[in-house]
């Protein structure tokens, strides 16, 4: 009998996957993340495959592995995690007062099977205007430093989110309701 493996060190993804009620282990895969795609939805799908395949190496037959990756895109340009506070300020300055997209790619594969499911989810996020002082105060919280686009919708940044179109959990890092649809076929063997 296999186990459900989350190939991600993100505590937010772990919290979201726990909502499924399925027992799982966290085993981030090690390996280089090389991308060939250009469009945000295709990039996150490709990276989710890479992450799942990297974790596959340390798995046993029957394990079901989930790889996921999230990016923030503004005007088609991907914004990763900020390298420092200056970069976080620049990112937030560009996002404030506008809408942008968040894409999460997910791959579900089973070791010992040729089956793999890969999909991406898109959510539009509308950010209220922010003053330079508000941006600096938010950066001081430390929240932006490990998050794509330099913000966490589930944290202090929530006060600047005017609204979203799409799946909230997708912005946090895992479109859990869509993912659960793919995991249902493995439910009996994972419980």
Describe it for me?
- The protein is α/β, with parallel strands linked by helices and 191 residues long.
- 32% of the residues lie in helices and 26% in strands.
- It has seven helices and seven strands; from the N terminus they run E-H-E-H-E-E-H-E-E-H-E-H-H-H.
- It has helices spanning 11-18, 40-56, 85-95, 132-140, 168-172, 176-183, 187-190, and strands spanning 4-6, 24-26, 64-74, 77-79, 99-110, 116-127, 161-165.
- Strands 1, 2, 3, 4, 5, 6 and 7 form a seven-stranded mixed β-sheet that branches.
- Strand 5 and strand 6 (116-127) form a beta hairpin.
- Helix 3 (85-95) crosses helix 4 (132-140).
Key terms:
single chain; 191 residues; alpha/beta; seven-stranded mixed sheet; 7 strands; 32% helix
Q: Name the helicity range.
A: 25-40%
Distance between the termini: 10 Å
Oligomer: single chain
Write down the Rg. Answer: 17 Å
**Annotation, overall tally of beta strands:** 7
Structural class by SSE content: alpha/beta
Mean pLDDT: 92
Strand content: 25-35%
Shape: elongated
- SSE order, one letter for each helix or strand: EHEHEEHEEHEHHH
Largest sheet: 7 strands, mixed
- What is the helix tally? 7
What is the fold's blueprint, element by element?
Elements: E1 4-6, H1 11-18, E2 24-26, H2 40-56, E3 64-74, E4 77-79, H3 85-95, E5 99-110, E6 116-127, H4 132-140, E7 161-165, H5 168-172, H6 176-183, H7 187-190
Parallel strand pairs: 1-2, 1-3
Antiparallel strand pairs: 3-4, 3-5, 5-6, 6-7
């Amino acid at each position: 009998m296999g186990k459900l493996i989350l190939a991600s060190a993100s505590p937010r993804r772990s919290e979201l996957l726990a909502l499924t009620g399925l027992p799982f282990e966290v085993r981030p895969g090690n390996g280089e993340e090389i991308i060939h795609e250009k469009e945000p939805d295709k990039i996150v799908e490709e990276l989710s495959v890479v992450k799942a395949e990297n974790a596959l190496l340390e798995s046993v037959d029957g394990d079901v592995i989930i790889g996921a990756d999230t990016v923030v895109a503004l005007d088609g340009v991907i914004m990763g995690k900020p390298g420092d506070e200056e970069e976080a300020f620049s990112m937030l300055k560009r996002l404030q007062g506008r809408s942008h997209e968040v894409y999460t790619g997910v791959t579900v594969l089973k070791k010992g099977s040729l089956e793999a499911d890969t999909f991406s989810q898109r959510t539009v996020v509308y950010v209220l205007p922010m003053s330079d002082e508000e941006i600096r105060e938010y950066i001081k919280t430390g929240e932006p430093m490990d998050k794509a686009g330099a913000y966490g919708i589930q944290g202090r940044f929530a006060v600047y989110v005017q609204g979203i179109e799409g799946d909230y959990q997708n912005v946090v890092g895992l479109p859990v309701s869509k993912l659960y649809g793919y995991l249902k076929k493995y439910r009996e063997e994972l419980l």
